[in-house]
Amino acid sequence: MAKTKVLTGITPSGTPHLGNYAGAIRPAIEQSWRDDIQSYYFLADYHALIKGHDPERVHRSSMEIAATWLALGLDTDQVTFYRQSDIPEVMELNWIISCMTAKGLMNRAHAYKAAVQSNEENDIIDPDKGVTIGLFCYPVLMTADILMFNADKVPVGKDQLQHLEMARDIASRMNHHYKTGFSLPEALTSENTAVISGLDGRKMSKSYDNTIPLFAPEKKLLKLIRKIKTNSLMPGEPKETEGDTLFQIFSAFASEQEVAEKQRQYQEGVGWGDLKNQLFEYLNNHLKDARDRYEQLMQNPDFIESELKKGAEKARAEAAPFLEKIRQAVGIRPFP
Ligand code: TRP
After folding, report:
1. PROSITE patterns of this UniProt entry (predicted)?
2. In 65-141, at which residue ranges do the beta strands (DSSP E only) sit?
């Protein structure tokens, strides 16, 4: 039976945090061990250039993300783990499909519309101020990432659903006109993956600057956990678990039984200081071994590089012959 192809990209624009781990990295790594699925995971480094123009940040974030996935047990023989920029075929496909993508379709893209709206709200005369062609065309590049490997399923956050619709739209047009035979990809959004709140109680996100890095060193981890916002109930007063950030983070890591036990502590009125110390102990134990591996990997960039090169070779072995067919289909081919 043909395996389902699952593909997802991670934009290297920051340091992986607990929210990334529970929401995306952990489910992906668990999936990578299944043998009915063929997984493709890649660092979407060309996408990172859309969001920021700090070369050191893109470079460092790429290495941190690669080291994180490897430290957490991604089996690179089982999956194809690569860096987008190592696959030139993707950029070539990006151009070919750009020429079949209606500009009007991109006008409707959320990221672009949000930028225009923010200009309007700020009374800026040019609605496109600050909008690069890269931002505008970003869903096309994402489509190229997906179609290049004929992915069936694409795990993404809900904010990316529109891009998957666009990918299907573009794939259908290509198939209709050129008989390219692209698979039509489907989004895979999981209702039950954990969403984690950050230090201030809002969703943990680097755009809110409220994150706890997954592999923060011990002292830093403790310091950050102590900063998590709680209400002002005193020790001895029963506390609600619902809506509490400490409880929510704990729940994303703990077993059902441990969660039930924690609920009891809240009812009994354990103080916030103790709850914070306990959360620290728990997370620290949970992450310690992976953090050691992470630190070792970060000291060994050559190894990370060789893992990604291995992935790129596997990816290109598929992408190159497939792109050749597409070039043929669109009329880019040798004479006669
Ligand atoms: N745009 C995605 C995000 O910001 C990352 C991404 C790039 C991606 N290319 C992709 C995800 C292809 C899935 C498939 O989350």
Report:
1. AA_TRNA_LIGASE_I
2. 80-83
CATH 3.40.50.620 intervals, the chain: 4-194+301-330
CATH class of the domain at 4-194+301-330: alpha beta
Helix (H, G, I), strand (E, B) or coil at 181: coil
Q: In this structure, are residues 204 and 211 in contact, taking their beta carbons and an 8 Å threshold?
A: yes
Name residues of the chain where pLDDT drops below 50.
none
d(CA 42, CA 145): 9
CA 336, CA 326: separation in Å to the nearest integer?
17
CATH topology of domain 215-296: Tyrosyl-Transfer RNA Synthetase (1.10.240)
Start and end residues for every CATH 1.10.240.10 domain found in the chain:
215-296
Read off the pTM. 0.94
Please give the distance, rounded to the nearest whole angstrom, from the Cα atom of residue 138 to the centre of ligand 1. 10
Per residue in 55-84, pLDDT (tens digit) is 999 999 999 999 999 999 999 999 999 999
Cα distances (Å, whole numbers) of residue 34 to 4, 14, 22, 188: 11, 28, 18, 16
C-alpha dihedral, 178 to 180 to 181 to 187, nearest 10°: -100
The response to whether residue 47 sits with its C-beta less than 6 Å from ligand 1 reads yes
- Model confidence over 222-247: pLDDT tens digits? 999 999 999 999 999 999 999 999 99
